[in-house]
Amino acid sequence: MTIAIFLGALLAAMAVGVPIAFSLLLSGAALMWHLDMFDAQILAQNVIEGANSFPLLAVPFFMLAGEIMNAGGLSRRIVVFAMTMVGHVRGGLGYVAIMAAVIMAALSGSAVADAAALSALLLPMMVRAGHNKARSAGLLASASIIAPIIPPSIGFVIFGVAANVSISKLFLAGIAPGVLLGMALCFTWWWVARREAVTPPQRKPAAEVVAALKDAVFALGLPIIVVVGLKFGVFTPTEAAVVAAVYALLISVFVYRELKLNQLYGLFLAAAKTTAVIMFLVAAAMVSAWLITVAQLPAQLVALLEPLLEHPRLLMAAIMLLVIVVGTAMDMTPTILILTPVLMPIVKAAGIDPVYFGVLFIMNNAIGLITPPVGTVLNTVAGVGKVSMDDVTKGVWPFMLAQFALMFLMVLFPQLVIWPARWLAG
């Protein structure tokens, strides 16, 4: 009955168009009323405490770093560098998109920011070269969702706070799966584009490759600084976010000189607006998380799933299927905030490594950004690239299925995540 009231209130509010943050507050109030403990002061106190978290300071700084990166020329230089490296091979522009997405993922941590930058820079070039527009848009969308997996990742920050899991360990554990996602996309692009009659450009001379590398070296240096700093304990993930934002600002203003001081207000405002949405979602979700614990919903679910606790792989597969279904209707951040407090007790009871679970959970939520009908990244690519939503959806299917296949391969073989994570953390 308790689960029915919570889910019923949440889904009913969302069905009539209430924003998700307010829907979470309404479902929390309904649960408080059902538990006969309704108190507006407790509700307000939990909202405030929900956002009162030092690690969450990483969110605005990573958002700001992404805004500066796109406006300051870092994204463009990465694309040019990737073009000189792999643009000459058959289907080269697709590999350029994937390579650029992997590098940019290590700069911004935001799938939407990367989708906007890649669509604006590469989609017109791919269409002019003769590639199918829908397929190209689908590739760019699926490549963009690598951003929440390779550090720095806003998704890992939110999950780490909600699940009380080390964000530094999540960051390091996300590197190998993110690279594997890029490799899966390369294979899929080769498969779907092999029949296209597109003549690749000539191989760039060595001098041009070196020039592109020199031009992009400062942009390429940021992910190295972040990963090395986290591995050796030079700074925390929150401090890494500040380093990323300040570094991107200094490089954009004083080295590349493409960012003018009068543009900063707009960039700060854009980052602040996005941060406000995320932080309000976090604050509202913490109310529900507290009430879910008080109502002992996790204990009820653990008892319900007790037959699966002795079979971790089967349990993980069932959880991943649940997240896939939820991801088709809900965006990444609310899905993390709603499901994490419910699933973590089950994961711990089954003896599953919380960091391993967190990586697959975030990967699943990231792929949810390109699953219709909601698909935030699909909408971004359609809007920026001036492509119909139907065309982007058709083009993304082969790439999305390849990413899901890789995710379930990691369910069957956890070592694909655990071994590289231990090596990097050690």
From TrEMBL:
The keyword Nucleotide-binding does not apply. It is a multi-pass membrane protein. Residues 7-416 form the TRAP C4-dicarboxylate transport system permease DctM subunit domain. Keywords: Cell inner membrane, Cell membrane, Membrane, Transmembrane, Transmembrane helix, Transport. Its main location: membrane. It is found in: Cell inner membrane. The chain crosses the membrane at residues 47-66, 78-98, 104-127, 139-164, 170-192, 213-234, 240-256, 268-294, 314-343, 355-375, 395-419. The keyword Transmembrane applies. It comes from the Bacteria. Part of the tripartite ATP-independent periplasmic (TRAP) transport system. Belongs to the TRAP transporter large permease family. The complex comprises the extracytoplasmic solute receptor protein and the two transmembrane proteins. This is TRAP transporter large permease protein. It comes from Hydrogenophaga defluvii. The lineage of its organism: Bacteria, Pseudomonadati, Pseudomonadota, Betaproteobacteria, Burkholderiales.
